[in-house]
Amino acid sequence: MTAALSRILTTLRSGLFGTRANTLVTVATVLLLSQVVPPLVRWAVLDATFGGDAAACTRAGACWAFVAAKLRFILFAFYPPGLQWRPALVILLLAAILVASALPRLWGRPLLVAWPLTILACWLLMQGAFTATPIPSNQWGGLPVTLFVWAVCFAAATPIAVLLALARRSTLGGLRTFSVLYIELMRGTPMVGILYVAMLILPMALPDSLSVDKMLRAIVMVTLFWAAYIAEVIRAGLQAIPPGQSEAATALGLGYWRTQRLVVLPQALRIVIPGMVNLAIGFLLATSLLAVIGIFDLLNAARASAADPNWLGFYNEAYLVVAAVYFVICFGASRYSQWLEGKLAGGRTCPRTA
Amino acid sequence: MIVQKTFRRAIQTAAAAAFLATTVLSGIAHAGPTLDKINQRGAIKVGVGTTPGFFAPDSNGEWQGFFIDFGRALSIAVFGTPDKVEFTSSSPQQRLPALQSGEFDILLSGVTVTATRAFKLGFHFGPTIFYDGQGILVRKDLGVAKAADLDGATIGAQSGTTGELNVADFFRKTGKTFTPVTIEDTGQFIDALESGRVDAITQDSSDLVGKRTQLKNPDDYVLLPERLSKEPLAPAIAGGDDRWLELVNWTVNATIQAEEWGITSANVDEFLKSEDPAIQRFLGVDPSFGNDLGLDPKWAYNIIKTVGNYGEIFERHLKPLGWERGYNSLWTDGGLLYSPPFR
């Protein structure tokens, strides 16, 4: 017991005060924390209000009563409270499919079928299918919208990205030029601009009789936009596969598509998974830009929740809740990426990339 | 607000580009009047903002606010019920292009009426429903009762807004001095004032009233009575549908006229017995008037019964935040609200 304790202490001492630089960093960190932590604790715990209404809250401390009252709105925004189980179920469904997709042993055909089915189910659930009153998409909001747009756009963009990446490495000049132009155009445009196109230009380009839902327009444009980014990551994976692989496949009599599908892509996609997870984390945070076209994603819902005259100005609390949600998802994704990297690197299925 | 400076610039550029494309394309794609689309869709699409008291969702996700009630009144005028209206929040940068592109049928988002918007951008404005203007919020202990008394004060203004220029103009006129402090983020105004970094802050008074309630001790601060600019906020619609414009005009007028007659949601049924022919026309007791206009004769009655008159809407949403009627009183009370006659 004491041996273990002294071992821990030794490790700590050498880690924190081992060298002069370490000592300096330790002292500076402790000083900084001593300045930051006490006021934070006072605000978040000691002076905080945990119940009651806005009148009970002092401006000196956090008003967690606000979070209790507004959590429903922050999570589900304008969705009718009576039908709230629908967006809640959407969150569960999306979480389930994301977790399933994260486990290498489930990778395979069933998962490829499960994705479109899940998306369809989520869309129907959100729309209020099989109820008397359909729920228009301007009443969707909060976490389900953030997760839904993220998952759908990423899932739909990936196949497009594979085709774009293959086209960019294609020997057909026209196809290659198209792919290069497309990718560079999309990557050279801010996402906000793409959202404005979805919001303002698309309705005018379409005939009057064909009015496409704003959410759908945004999803389509974001998918096309993200595809360009994913395509570049996938291209990196394609380039990592030695040409001998496809030459061998050709020698065995496989055509172009079978070579890609059976030999090149399975290896290339494995290599780029950490890069894709990295992109996915960035994309999750980018979904908050949907606010500029009036979609109530998680962040926008939180901001609006603090504009209620009954609960005016509790922006800090609202943003903290949202930050916590984003952090949990992003931290989980990044830990997963590390775990997967280690697993794939050590696994027998690891391709030789040298 | 939450957007960074560069990000905001990117948005503005994108909005400008989109707007340009919109104006070029709109001539081709949109010929049908707004009202046809509204009837076909069965709902009015209204663009709003998020300012406490004016438009904000409550805990149940229902939109509430001063402008929201006018949207409900419009729904009553068109469909006879207050719920055939879809409110969508839109940022100041994108709301006008969105109106032009047909994404919204009307903006009730506090758009200031300006000549450029009317002539060059082709928008039509309904009656002004809220007379706003740039105000100055000062610490009480300065002992200042009117803006002209401010001398040598440190004043915070939002960078890059007309507010910054207006306050400089104002002090040039009065011949007094002031120290400007530009504040980037609207959320920092409160901190600047409470920490004593500035003696006063200046923004549109609708923003200042909301900010005042968020201060630790709201009673230590006072909104000076002067307005440094004119910001008449009116419903905005795209050009090309005269009947829709008239519906908007007379829906607003109905709420103002009702207040002038003292008709409220509580007593409107008693007024049905009124002998006054003007009131009989207004409330549809004499249905020929409404029929002549092509409206449900009971439309004004339904509006007053459901959302109330102008004064009631004001009391409900803005009074709790500390708003005084001020310019937004009836002309009979020395304000600017005046409805043309209903005949």
What is the string of helix and strand elements of chain A? HHHHHEHHHHHHEHH
Helix content of chain A: over 70%
Overall pLDDT metric of chain B: 86
Q: Distance between termini of chain B?
A: 46 Å
Radius of gyration of chain A using CA atoms only: 25 Å
Count of helical stretches of chain B: 14
How many strand segments of chain B? 13
Superfamily (CATH H level) name of the largest domain in chain A: MetI-like
- Contiguous low-pLDDT stretches of chain B (5 residues minimum) are 22-32
Number of domains of chain A: 2
Shape of chain B: globular
Protein structure class of chain B: alpha/beta
First and last CA, distance of chain A: 47 Å
Q: How many β-strand stretches of chain A?
A: 2
> Which structural class best describes the helix and strand composition of chain A?
mainly alpha
State the CATH class of the largest domain in chain A: Mainly Alpha
Question: DSSP strand (E) fraction of chain A?
Answer: under 5%
Pfam families (chain A): BPD_transp_1 (PF00528)
Transmembrane segments (chain A): 24-45, 85-104, 111-135, 147-167, 188-206, 218-238, 271-296, 316-334
Domain ABC transmembrane type-1 (chain A): 143-333
Main location (chain A): membrane
